[in-house]
Design goal:
This protein has 3 domains: about 5-50, no CATH class; about 60-175, Uridine Diphospho-n-acetylenolpyruvylglucosamine Reductase, domain 3 (2-Layer Sandwich); about 180-285, Enolase-like, domain 1, CATH 3.30.390.50. The protein is α+β, with helices and mostly antiparallel strands. The protein has 13 helices and 13 strands. Bound molecules: flavin-adenine dinucleotide (FAD).
Length: about 290
C-alpha cells in the first residue's frame, strides 16, 4: 500500500483551497470504493499521491436529490442506494434508479457515491450510461466559483476527466424527460452478483397511441472510451412504428457503429452479438414488448 496523509474537509471552500494548494498530489476521497481499492492494489497512477481529501463530512451540502420544475439536482455525495430508493429518481429517471440498483453489493451501494462513480472515469460505470442518455450536466466547484458542463464533455478519454486544479464535483443536473417517456437500463456482467458491466445500455423512448416513436435517446456503455449518445440510431428510430424488426435493426446499427469506431478487435466476435442482443432487449422491454 502507498503511504499518504489524510485531510478531512469541513467546508466546500476548504476542499477547493486544499486541492489548489496540493495539486496533483492530492485526491478527493468520497466513499472510497474505487480509490482505496486502487491504492491498496498499488495502482501506479497513485504512486505520487501525498494527500487524500475526505469530503464525506459534507453530507448536508452534497447529499441530496432535489426536484425543481424542469430538472432534478443530485448532490455528488448521494450514494447508489440513495438514487436507487429516491422516489424522485424512481419517478423521473427509473433507468438511473435501476442502474444504481445493479451496482456491486448492498455495502458498495451504501458507500459508493455518484460523484465517485463519474470521477473514477471508467466507461463501465453503470450510472454513467443513463446519465448520458438523460443529457445530464455536471457542476464543478473551484476556488473562483462554479462551472457547469455537459457530462459527455466532462469525459476527455478513458480514465480522464476535465477537472482543473482546485476543482471537484458538487452536483449533477438532470433535465426531466418528456411526459410519458418509457425507459430501460440493461446490463451484462460476467456473473449476477458483484459484476462490473461488460456491456450496458440505456434507452428512453416516447411513442404515441399509433406506436410511432416521437423521442428516442440511446446510449451503449463500455464500448467507447468516451460515453456518447448514439444519435444515428436515435434518428433511425424517430418517426418509425415500434416493431421487433425495427429494434433488431437498431441493435445491428449499434454494433456496426461500434466496429466503425473501435475497429474489429479480438473481443468483437463476442461483443457484437452481445451488444445487438442487449440493445434489442432494452428497446423491447422499454416498449413493453415480450421477449422471445
Ligand atoms: C466489489 C466492487 C464492486 C463494484 N461493482 C460496481 C458495479 O457493478 N457497477 C459500477 O458502476 N461500479 C461498481 N463498483 C465501483 C464503485 O463502487 C463506484 O465507482 C463508486 O460509485 C465510486 O464512488 P466512491 O464514492 O466510492 O468513490 P471514491 O473511491 O471515493 O473515488 C473514486 C474516484 O473519484 C474521485 N472523486 C470522488 N468524488 C469526487 C468528487 N465529488 N469530485 C471529484 N473527484 C471525486 C476520487 O478522487 C477517485 O479518483 C464496484 C466496486 C467494488 C469495490
Amino acid at each position: 500500500m502507498f503511504h499518504f496523509d489524510y485531510f478531512r474537509a469541513n467546508h466546500i471552500e476548504e476542499v477547493c483551497s486544499f486541492l489548489q494548494q496540493h495539486g496533483d498530489k492530492s485526491r478527493i476521497l468520497a466513499g472510497g470504493t474505487d480509490l482505496m481499492v486502487q491504492i491498496h492494489e498499488k495502482d501506479p497512477k497513485w504512486a505520487q499521491l501525498e494527500w487524500v481529501v475526505d469530503i464525506s463530512a459534507l453530507q448536508k451540502e452534497l447529499r441530496y436529490v432535489r426536484e425543481e420544475e424542469t430538472e432534478v439536482h443530485i448532490g455528488a455525495l448521494s450514494t447508489h442506494t440513495d438514487l436507487e430508493t429516491s422516489p424522485v429518481i424512481q419517478e423521473y429517471f427509473p433507468l438511473l434508479s435501476a442502474a444504481c440498483a445493479s451496482v456491486g453489493s448492498p455495502q458498495i451501494r451504501n458507500m459508493g457515491t455518484i460523484g465517485g462513480s463519474i470521477c473514477n472515469a471508467s466507461p463501465a460505470a453503470d450510472p454513467l450510461t443513463p446519465l448520458i442518455a438523460c443529457d445530464a450536466s455536471i457542476v464543478l466547484q473551484g476556488v473562483d466559483g462554479r462551472r457547469t458542463l455537459l457530462l459527455s464533455d466532462f469525459y476527455l478519454g478513458k480514465g480522464q476527466v476535465d477537472l482543473q486544479p482546485g476543482e471537484f464535483v458538487v452536483e449533477f443536473v438532470v433535465p426531466k424527460l418528456p411526459c410519458k417517456a418509457v425507459t430501460r437500463f440493461e446490463k451484462l456482467g460476467r456473473r449476477k452478483a458483484l459484476a462490473i458491466s461488460r456491456l450496458n445500455a440505456a434507452v428512453v423512448l416516447k411513442y404515441n397511441e399509433q406506436k410511432q416513436i416521437e423521442f428516442a435517446r440511446v446510449v451503449a456503455g463500455c464500448i467507447f472510451t468516451k460515453p456518447k449518445r448514439l444519435t444515428e440510431m436515435e434518428n433511425l428510430l424517430v418517426g418509425k412504428t415500434i416493431s421487433r424488426e425495427l429494434f433488431e435493426q437498431a441493435g445491428k446499427a449499434v454494433s456496426e457503429e461500434m466496429i466503425r469506431v473501435t475497429g474489429y478487435r479480438w473481443s468483437t466476435e463476442y461483443k457484437q452479438p452481445a451488444l445487438e442482443g442487449l440493445m434489442e432487449r432494452a428497446l423491447l422491454t422499454a416498449a413493453e414488448m415480450e421477449l422471445e
